[in-house]
Amino acid sequence: MEIAKLKNILEAVLLGADRTLTVVQMEALFELDEERPTRDEIRKALHEMADDYETRGYELKQVASGFRLQVKQEYATWVGRLWEEKPARYTRALLETMSLIAYRQPITRGEIEEVRGVSVSSNIIKTLMERDWIKVLGHKDVPGKPTLYGTTKEFLDYFNLKTLDELPTLAEIKDLDNIHPELELDDDTAKPDESENGEVSDSSVDETLNETESEDALTEETVLSEDANEESSDELYETEDVADEIVAEDDENDQLEETKKQVSNV
Predict the structure, then answer these.
(1) Are residue 181 and residue 145 in the same domain, yes or no?
(2) Quick one: 206 exposed, middle or buried, by C-beta within 10 A (0-12, 13-18, 19+)?
(3) What is the tally of structural domains in the chain?
(4) Strands 107-108, 66-71: pairing kind
(5) Can you give the pLDDT at residue 81?
(6) Residue 254 sits in which domain range?
(7) Same structural domain, 96 and 205
(8) Residues 112 and 197 occupy one common structural domain
(9) How far apart are the first and last CA of the chain?
């Protein structure tokens, strides 16, 4: 099959597909044809297509689960205006938890809490599991058999990654806000509410995942209150010491007056 025709067919297939496609899946599309391209020819066509799209508004992207045609990131702002719904918003707590799982997998919930210094909300794990961004890899061979978590292919696909090796190094990450332009952080606190189909909405989960931060603030206020009480106690002790000194001085003055009276009588 001519390479130009093959490229047009693959382009049409990728545009019509609602999912990523592997080379094997693309090859299967030609099973009924007399002139069937080889797997190497398909790979060559895909490579040339990627070069052809460098000057266009979309690109051929290979992610963990296959190939797809997608809008280039620099044009996402204008394309996003076609839809009224707002992009998904996630809390910093969720992003920190997701990042720890991605970089330190397999990892347990307790290990995540040890690194973050606060407890991990069950809603965070639930949200990541429902989005198929993380999965259970097994259980750690320690008392309690805690669950081990790791990332999925869907996680890699969402962030345009082919493998975990393409994750930025920790030294390159200066701010979680810049991991993905659509991941806007929301620090509001509220109780979660469910949608009509029973799923917890992103906005409601977004508002409730800051429970640990509120607890931290409450703990900090308690500590400050205890410190204030200690300071008050110290001031009280100092006041009592001053009072004792005043009483001692009064006793000395009384003794001096008594001595003067005795001398006058003599």
Answers:
(1) yes
(2) buried
(3) 3
(4) unpaired
(5) 85
(6) 216-266
(7) yes
(8) yes
(9) 139
Rounded to 5 degrees, φ, ψ at 148 are: -100, 130
Stretches in the chain below the pLDDT threshold 70: 85, 87, 170-266
What are 168-185's pLDDT values in tens digits?
A: 876 666 554 455 454 444
**Helix and strand totals (H; E) in the chain:** 10, 5
pTM above 0.85, yes or no: no
Q: Quick one: 100 and 124 in the same domain?
A: yes
Distances from the Cα of 122 to the Cα of 31, 112, 128, 139, 235, angstroms: 48, 13, 10, 18, 45
pLDDT digit string (tens) for 56-72?
A: 999 999 999 999 999 99
If asked whether residues 128 and 231 sit together in one domain, one would say no
Kindly state the DSSP code that residue 200 receives in the 8-state scheme: B
For residue 109, tell me if it sits in a domain: yes
In angstroms, the Cα distances linking 202 to 89, 140, 196, 207, 226 are 7, 30, 13, 9, 38
Structure letter (DSSP) for residue 181: T
Let me know: does 148 contact 137? Beta carbons within 8 Å.
Answer: yes
Do the domain assignments include residue 249? Answer: yes
Other C-beta atoms closer than 10 Å to the C-beta of 1 total: 16
- Does 87 map to a domain? no
Q: Which of 34, 60, 80 is the last residue of a domain?
A: 80
